[in-house]
Amino acid sequence: MASYLAIAREVALCADWTWATTRPTWDHLAQRTGRSRRTVARVLAWLRATGLLGLVATGRSAGAAAMAGDDGADAALYVLAVPHALRLLTSPSPASAATGREDAQPAPTPTGVHEVGTPSREAVSEGDPRAGARAKLSPPTADRPLTAWPPSRRPATRPEMAAAAATARTLCPPLRATTAPWVVALLREFWLAGWTLRDTLRALDERPDGTPWPHTTGVRHVPGWVRHRLAAWVTDAGTPQRSPSQTSAAAQAHTRALARARDERRVLEDTQRASGTEAAAGAAAAREALRAARNQSSAHRRPGRR
């Protein structure tokens, strides 16, 4: 039991309490606790089986990382969890709504369902140096929810990019293995170039020619996966290409310009045709008048010759 407590405590000490995630390597846990790698593997498997630890992304060895062109190995990413029974929240009765009191107790649901959450503040002792950092965190609450960012809009400011990153992690499952600040760092250059959130998510799914990216296995290294797919949308100068929405807007503007030019040319041709018809009619009338004048002149000269 001492090994279980020691390894579980070290896993918690390596956690990022902003997202309740932890990424310790087996070697780190073995060195810090004085246990073998086999014991570390057994304890981690037990923590996962009991619902205290959830696997977000698997790790990879240094050899696999070298084959992928990265510098080193990646540790598995876990999320800390507190298993407990969920309860069904019932709507308040009209009487309780009027008085502002909740008399009805929610009915418990069957156990065995796990809810992911961070440990309570009491789980960190007063002497822990992270206790002060924990108190400074201000996660979204019911009074201050995290606003979803519209995919069709371009984030420009830091708060907008943070909201767009949170929405991107919701819409793109591989991005959930990393943090929102990481998502901002990976997509910021494209957003500054005028790309919308939908543009960046589309670039992660499709190549510039419209063909989909292949999906074979799970994403092991999210930053490398994002950089690899976005690199296809970068020009030779190292700047982002025109985004899909920008390309579509330019094509629509070009189509409208061509239609306007055709309309103007048609109006000009109709005007010239009408002018030509009027001129031809005037010339014909002039010729007819000249012919009539000649005939009349000839008729006046004939009696005098007799």
Short summary of the structure?
Residues 92-161, 237-306 are annotated as: Disordered. The protein is an alpha+beta fold and 306 residues long.
The arrangement of helices and strands along the chain is: HEEHHEHEEHEEHHHHHH
Strand content: 5-15%
Unreliable parts:
62-73, 94-146
Question: What is the terminal separation in angstroms?
Answer: 150 Å
Kindly give the count of domains: 3
Radius of gyration based on Cα positions: 38 Å
Structural class: alpha+beta
Describe this structure in words.
- The protein has 306 residues and is an alpha+beta fold.
- It folds into 3 domains: 1-85 and 112-118, Arc Repressor Mutant, subunit A (Orthogonal Bundle); 145-241, no CATH class; 242-296.
- Helices cover 52% and strands 8% of the residues.
- The chain has 11 helices and 7 strands.
- The protein has helices at residues 2-13, 26-33, 37-49, 62-67, 94-99, 130-136, 158-171, 180-192, 197-205, 222-231, 244-305, and strands at residues 15-16, 21-22, 53-57, 77-83, 87-88, 107-108, 114-116.
- The strands form 2 sheets. Strands 1, 2, 3, 4 and 7 form a 5-stranded antiparallel beta sheet that branches. A two-stranded antiparallel sheet has the order 5-6.
